[in-house]
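Entry 14. Ran structure prediction on the chain below.
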Amino acid sequence: MDVRPSAAQHLLASTAREYLRRHHPIETIQRPVGAPAARGAAFDDKLWRGMAELGWAGLLVPGEHGGSDGSLLDVVLLVEELGYAGVPGPFVTSAVAATTLLLAGASDAQRARLLPGLASGTRIATLAVVEESGRFAPEALTLEVTAGQLRGRKRFVKDAELATDLLVALRGGVAIVPADAGGITRVALDTLGDERLFDLTFDGVPVGDGDRIDGRAALAAAMSAGALARTAELVGAAQRVLEMAVEHARTRVQGGRPIGGHQAIQHACADMVRDVDASRELLHLAAWKTSEGLEAGPDVATAKAYAGEACLAVARRAHQIFGAISYCDEHPLHVFHERMLAASADFGDAALHLETVARAIGLEP
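Output, structure tokens:
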């Protein structure tokens, strides 16, 4: 079993890093001194179109629908670079989770209608899953389509103002709803970082038979892919934070020598390396198993649960190494930390995924 990325996958990752270094430098996410706190990062349409032209938006889409016939491991390596560069936006929800859901459960007609636009980046789809319980678990879903109409509420829907299509999770399936359909109310939420989240209320939104995807299998596949992609984002961001902290430890002089000369700082950096490398190995194993069609549920859960805790530990140690400067608005570390907090909770937090691991080894949580 060889889970190492291929030469083509290494090329994809290196090309992405160089492209994002030129088109989305770290200064992009730094807040100027004295600037007001932002409510959600501004959508960079030019960057999104550039990513789509490179084929990133259609990485998972079959060639017959204008995509690249890529694998989930390809996507994971790319999203690591997006996390490393701190790129916000709908890539995970649209190009990964929504696309996976359509590939897993949509009819031929639904695929032909939606996938070409998703591959080209002209369409953006987002998932509406969480309800009042705030849980991603399937048993927490209560919404249903009654008499051809959808009524109810979904919470914490990412990038709902950008989406052309909403994939709304139901008790027994998924409804495909045009984002501009009548009867939809959006309320923007205040968030800790720059995630753009919305509460959506559906009041008599029409849903035809051709807009339904039956069964929970497709939603489960989308949730698994989304969890892996958010894990990749965590790993990429943690790698960037690690490099920033090590560079600071080498160059910050105090008491006549770099602070990296102190054993306590060295131990902290070593712990950070361990956490990042272990998270990445678990992530790549889960993505490889999924790409090969092997049973990967427990592996995905293990990767998401472990990285959700370990990568946040990396951010906390980095704050200790940097000191007070890292809490200033103009410093990028707190932005990465906020995004990592959001990624650790999205598509299930550590507690939810540890329940999956417990069941897989015969324990009842």
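The chain has three domains: 7-120, 125-213, 217-360. Will compare against last week's run tomorrow.
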